[in-house]
Input
Amino acid sequence: MKFDFLPESDQAYYIHKASTLVEALPYIREHAGQTIVIKYGGHAMSTPKLADSFSRDIGLMKEIGIFPVVVHGGGPQIGEVLKQKNIKSEFINGLRVTSKDTMNVVEEVLTNDINNKIVSAINKTGGKSIGLNGSQNGLIEATKLEIQVKEPNSNIEKYIDIGFVGKPNNINKNTINDKLKEGFIPVIAPLGMDKEKNIYNINADTAAGFIASELKANKLLLLTDVPGILDEKKQLISSLSLEEANKILDEDFVSGGMKPKILTCIEAMNKGVKKSTILDGRIPHSLILELFTEHGIGTQIYS
Ligand code: ADP
Ligand code: MG
Output
């Protein structure tokens, strides 16, 4: 059949486009009204094109009735500024060792640079977002994190001090819920404050997972710079049960920043978040692919 309102050469293209939109309908129905927390990593905002695609995805989610909450990292950007200032970057168990000097850089980069950039990128594409600093107005209450590591060649565990790295204990849910009710997309910098007014750097995955649990979010999406969790042969693991996720934490092929990510998904799901996915933020429109297509992308952890 021919349609003379479209040039023949374009017909297949437009009909395909229309059916793609229609195929999204059941997913739109499924997600409308849900709260979805998205951890937006430093890598996924590395080019203006990716930042623009992310902003449009978030705007689209909002328009169809999802309540997106963005928590951002800033690893690569923080690393860059530390390098310029000759401050060394050190990680233990995927967490940045944070001295006072490092903390000053973390705070500056997260709040003044990255948070503002994400907010303006979302607003530029027609969304209505608002930046929130986790350490201000009691948004994220934290305490200093102490971690246990095994001494080399032994099973002895010891506590080590990694500086101003915090563990979230409480959030002011009302602040976030009020912004959601007012129609905003909250964009949160992962910093926390303790009772003595010390400010802490919180791993952005950890902060996103904690916020997702406290808000009773339906989904937690962690955007990163790999396709998802990779196995020992570097093949993508496309889904994992909660039990399997617990097991692979001890595997040698899981290291660095992937550890806090998996741990975050496990903790969030133990506290009621229904699904969590670790996905590749370098793919344009990764959020739309994950939420509105049959197969989704990345590694999904289910309970
Ligand atoms: P982000 O900024 O997204 O938090 P991180 O560097 O903290 O990025 O964590 C992602 C990194 O985890 C990957 O780039 C990869 O180097 C590392 N990683 C370690 N083990 C794995 C694994 N099994 N599968 C995928 N990535 C892994
Ligand atoms: Mg990380």
Summary: The mean pLDDT is 93. Residues 73, 75, 205, 257 surround magnesium ion (ligand 2) (CB under 6 Å). Residues 100-124 form the longest helix (25 residues). The two ends are 48 Å apart (CA to CA).
